[in-house]
Predict the structure of Fungal lipase-type domain-containing protein.
Amino acid sequence: MRLWALLGFVVYGCHGTFQQLADSNERMLASSADMPKSRVHSNPLLTTLRHWGRYAASTYQRYEDWDNCTDCQAPDIAETELNSTWSTALPAFSRGYVGIHHGRREVVVAFRGTTHIMDTLSDAQIAQVPWPPSSDGSDTIDGTSRVHWGFLLAYKAAQLQIRDALETIARDARLADYSLHFVGHSLGAAQATLAFVDYSLGYPEYSNEKGRKAGRTFPRSCSLVTFGSPRVGNLQFIRLVDSPSTCVGWHRRSDDKLDESVLRVVHESDIVPHLPRSMLLLGRYSHAGRETWARDAAGEAASEIIICSHHADDGKEDPQCSAGTSPLGWNILDHLVYPGIQLHILPDFLHPLAPLANV
C-alpha cells in the first residue's frame, strides 16, 4: 500500500467508522463504465477546465515575470496582463494575482495552493468561524454561515487588495463587458471560493445588480472553478456559494447545455477534497458547486470528465463520483495532477521557510 494511501486511511479512520469504510468499498464496485453515457464528457468541457487549470498552475511559478513563466506561456493565457499581485507570509499565507486577458475579454483572480508546511498550518485550523468578514463590520449575512478558520485567515490577508483591484476594474468603461473568474488549486481553491462569495454577495456594490443600477456593467458574467478544493464551510455557507443570486454562469456547451457558475474539479482519488472531516465540536463541512470528476483514461491523467449530480439543498455528494471511492485509495499524488495542472512539489512540504522566499 502506498504511504499516501495509508495516510488517507488513517485520516479517514480518525473520524469515520468501519461501517462507513465498508459502504465506501461497496459503492466503489460501480465503475465509470456503468454510468449513463450522458455523464461522461471529453472535449469542450475538458478544454475549458484545462484553460482555468493553467491559470491555477501559474500561481506556483514566478508569475510576476509572466514572459518567462512556463505555464504562463500556454497559448490561451500567454497574453494575460497582470493587474495586481500579492504575497503574504505572516500571520497567514496567501499568494496570487488579478490578471486581464483582453483577447478573451476576461478578468481572472487566481490563488496559489498549498506547497509548503507554512501553508498547511492554515489548513490545520479547522474550527469554524462566522462568515463573512463584511464591509460594514457585521458578523454574518444570515447569522448561520460559518467557514474554516484557517482558510478565512489566508483569504483576509489579501482581501482588501483584491477588492481594490476589482473596484478599479469595475470603474474602467473599457472593461465593462469582461467576464470575471475566480480560480485556485488546493488552499488556493478554498480562498477562491471565499473571494467568489465575498465579491458576489458580501460586496454587492461591486457586483452585477447594484453595479448596473449605478451605471456599471462589469462583470458580464462570473464563475468559480476550483481544483482539488477542501471543504470550506458549513451547509449554510455552501448555499450562499450555490445561490442563484451569485454571478451568472459562463460555462455553456452545445452537447449538454451545462450552465454553472460554480464548478468543482476532483481528480481520481485525491485525498484533499475529502477533508476536513465533519466533527461534532468543530463543525460540519460540506462542498459547494457541482463536482466534475476528472478520471484517468487511455493512459492519460485527468483526461475523462464525469459530471456528477449536485445536491445544494442538503450538501450530499454524488456516491457515483469521488465520494464513492474507498479511503484506502485516497492519496496526495492525485492532488498534484489536474486538467492543465502538473505539479512537482512534494519535497517542498519539508521546507518550513520556503514561502518567505516568495515574498
Residues 149-170 form the longest helix (22 residues). Residues 5 and 193 are 27 Å apart (CA to CA). Residues 3-358 form a domain with the Rossmann fold fold (CATH 3.40.50.1820).
